[in-house]
Amino acid sequence: MTVRFDAAAYNFRKKCPYVRKDLLRWFPGHMNKGLKQMQRKLSSVDCVIEVHDARIPFTGRNPVFTETMIGAKPHILVLNKRDLTISTLLPKIVDQLKAEENVQNVLFTNSKDQHCRGLKTLKPLMVDLIKNSNRYNRSEELDYNVMIIGVPNVGKSSLINMLRSKNMRIRHALPVGAVAGVTRSLMTKMRINDDPKIFMFDTPGILEPSVTDIEMGLKLALCASLQDHLVGEETIADYLLYWLNSHAKFKYVDYMGLEEPCDDIQKVLVSGAVKYNRIRRVRDFDGRTREVPDLLESARTMIKAFRTGELGRMFLDIDVLKLRRKTEIQEEMEELG
Prior knowledge:
There is one protein chain. 40% of the residues are buried. The chain is of the alpha/beta class. Helix 6 (214-222) packs across helix 8. It is elongated, with a radius of gyration of 22 Å. The chain contains 12 helices and 8 strands. It has helices at 29-41, 63-70, 90-101, 117-131, 156-168, 214-222, 228-231, 233-246, 251-255, 265-275, 295-307, 326-335, and strands at 47-53, 75-80, 106-109, 144-150, 190-193, 198-201, 279-283, 289-293. The N and C termini lie close together (11 Å). A 6-stranded mixed sheet has the order 3-2-1-4-6-5, sandwiched between helices.
């Protein structure tokens, strides 16, 4: 049985941990090259599918896509990893995206579940949008070309693999990984459907060249859209701790071997290291060796628990959602653990 704690009894931090902005910048050469490739290929594309993380639907979407990639092309926003966010909030997310950003076609998917309703809806939706659009130089073509875009590690390749497997009974062909940057260039188009013929271009994840908002960068890092070692695992774990305490999500207490909520990331990581035997040996100046808690491995354990849902379903953009009272959302999050 999970012990309930009263958040009002604790004096948690009120501000997001400070991080130098240069730690949140990651725009290597392959991103710049990939963006140029995508822009050149756009004339032969009939529809653009933008994939993003359902835990941060309003945060971190690259404005370059809106300005240069979407525009005149039919556009579908796929919010992936719906199994890790709060399902009762999905209709309100859609309403706000339509009202504030004029995003008319929004689907929620779990690209690891072949029975996902969003995956079943995606193909007929893209076909309908393409048929009812002006295809310009491709109006005589019978096949459809679709480009998948998004920030790193939101499940673009996994989505293509699942559609290909589901519609054509063909095994997965694109490499996927739990870290950002697996796809590094625009790949040859993959057929994902026979009738009608639909081809998809997988593309590298593209971030903004500069991060203007620290918390946005930390959310992207927590959701693995930045490579962990660039930001620092302990820094990412500290932001996670700050966010969990700010929103009275205390499942981490038991998970990290604590007796009660704590706002000190060092204490949390030491406790987790002891619980999971994350120990390393160090050599002192006199040549003797001793065992100390491995805080890096403990931080990785905590971050992984968030990313796999072991700390409960999360909606990191709760403070951006405007269409419901925050107290109602908070109650739902507490009920979900």
